[in-house]
Amino acid sequence: MTMIACKAAEPPVAALAVDNEPLQVRAKRAGLQQKRLAALLGVSENTVSLQLRGKWESGTPRYVTATIIAWEIMSHADRMRWLEETEALAADLKRRSG
Predict the structure, then answer these.
(1) Helices 45-52 and 34-41, axial angle in degrees (round to 10)
(2) Euclidean distance between the first and final Cα of the chain, in Å?
């Protein structure tokens, strides 16, 4: 018996390989625009811009970095599912609050 393509596909970007690269560059290279990142994080685009540039007293919040790394290592299908799930949750929360 011959096994073909048994190895899982590698993520498009290895997170550890680019640790010293600016987060804006990493997000852009992974196809994660600031508008989409803002929607995933539930903040404004202006807030994301400030966060990515480290304008917070403590630097870039870890949840922003974690989100970019997660996006880098996800497959396209996982990214689309994540977007669908977060959009549905945001709509549900908005419906419940008002």
Answers:
(1) 100
(2) 60
